[in-house]
TrEMBL record:
EthD domain span: 12-83
Pfam families, per the entry: EthD
Lineage, top ranks: Bacteria, Bacillati, Actinomycetota, Actinomycetes, Kitasatosporales
Organism: Streptomyces vastus
Protein known as: EthD domain-containing protein
Listed Gene3D superfamilies: 3.30.70.100
Length: 106
């Protein structure tokens, strides 16, 4: 799998609950339509391990078969629509991508 990983924080005027509801609701409806999307995992952050890790609300891992498939998704009208929906929200995010390696499975 090739993953796009997004760590996001809500806009300052939103509550954590509102942001998660939007992300898993209205925004999810657009995300599901991304071409080539194989899996999507979302984690609601409810605690930070340490002070330097505070201030984040959620993590999304969007999985594709290859870097090329992710590139196609990022160039798609569906991605453009999702980006437009975010607009000028004023939240923060970190977006990184890379190959997945399963390190352990019970």
């Amino acid at each position: 799998m090739y993953n796009l990983v997004l760590l996001a924080a809500r806009p300052p005027e939103w509550t954590h609950e509102r942001f998660i509801e939007w992300w898993r609701g209205d925004h999810a409806e657009l995300t599901y339509r991304l071409p080539g999307l194989r899996a999507w995992r979302h984690t609601e952050v409810d605690a930070a391990l340490e002070p330097r890790s505070e201030g984040w609300d959620g993590i999304s891992v969007l999985s594709f078969d290859s870097p090329e498939d992710l590139k196609k998704a990022l160039a798609s009208p569906e991605w453009a629509e999702a980006v437009a929906q975010v607009g000028d929200m004023k939240g923060r995010r970190i977006a990184v991508m890379g190959h997945e390696a399963e390190m352990f499975a019970a």
